Amino acid sequence: MKTSIVSYLVKRFLRFDSEQPFIFLSALLAFLGISLGVMVLIVAMALMNGFDNEFRKKLTIMNYPLTIIPKFYGAVNENLLLDLESKFPNLKFSPYVQSSVMARSGSKLEGGYIFGVDFKSEAEVNSVLKEAIKDKNFNKFDVLIGKSLKEELNLYSGDKLMYIFTHVEPGGMSVTPKIKRFNINGIFDSGLSAYDKAYSYTTLSSLQTMMHLPSNQYSGIHIFSGDPHNDILKIKKYLPQSVTIKGWWEDNVNFFAALELEKVSLFIVLMLIILIAAINIISSLLMTVMNRRSEIALLLSLGATSAEIKKVFLYLGIVIGISGILAGIVFGLSGLWILGTFDIIHLPKDVYPTSTLPLDLSLKDFLSIICGAFIIVVVSSFYPAKKASEVDILTVLRNE
């Protein structure tokens, strides 16, 4: 019987009252505000996760899951490569030689790095290069450059590109930088303009010749691993003291920490939309309490308890809030479907790692949005419900 009274009063107070339209309008604004807040949060969190995952995927490829490099006094050689290949047959290894260079075309200069690699081995650890060198053969002093460098220097396949090496060699009474023209044999596009402009790839023998290195000595070894966080611990046990290994994430710790901080800040700021909407719930319920004081007093005099009255207004606020949350979920998921299905927003690919909006709503973020909104709604409904249960029966009825 008690439940039916509470349910009946909740339904009755939710109806539109022509004599007090502002109460209904305030409740409607609260509903719309919560719906908007939940919808915006869902879309924003999906976008933040999408960009985060897209950057992680691109950076994993171009920075390589794992890289073995020498310490200050060490060297990476063929014996180490063969030893690792025998111990870890499930991983892919690609030795490389690296040098910092200046690429020059006409009067234009661009700084960066050139890697000497075995293109067959490198294709197994770098999917971007695998796509770029498809059906291509690389001869000595052929080079593969990035799309951004091609556009910056206005180059095409078959052109010659001058590289000025930072390593110098003696010449009489002075030292002169090493300079070599390479033949452009292909273009790669990683989706990250900074890497496309800075990185170039040539054959292993070409760079070993330029660096005066023996054929069995390298600058490092690129490794492809499906589980780099665990594999890095296993490989460390077999490495000599002269070399070390690093994961792709070690060079990007600050970048992803900044992304995570931005995501948390955005969540807090957008949650304020729901908090502002919850103020409308408080005002709507307080106006209802003031308008229904005589009815509340009468109910209390007829045997209704203070707990029942508190439940009525608590449930009233929760119904408004939950309705807004459910509507926000529907609108938010519909927005994600529209943005993911139709090419409404086109991103500049030279700025972002993808030209379409990356969307990925994690279960953790989704539950955080729902729980956060629900807590705000419950807290907002509690104070008006408490005030309703504290109505003084004698005072109200005497004045009425």
Automatic annotation (TrEMBL):
Principal location class: membrane
Domain spans labelled MacB-like periplasmic core: 28-211
Cellular location(s): Cell membrane
Keywords: Cell membrane, Membrane, Transmembrane, Transmembrane helix
Superkingdom of source: Bacteria
Membrane-crossing residue ranges in chain numbering: 21-48, 264-291, 312-339, 366-385
Chain ranges of the ABC3 transporter permease C-terminal domain: 268-389
Keyword Transmembrane assigned: yes
UniProt membrane topology term: Multi-pass membrane protein
Pfam family name, one: MacB_PCD
UniProt GO BP: lipoprotein localization to outer membrane
Cellular component aspect of the GO annotation: plasma membrane protein complex
Family: Belongs to the ABC-4 integral membrane protein family. LolC/E subfamily.
Protein's recorded name: ABC transporter permease
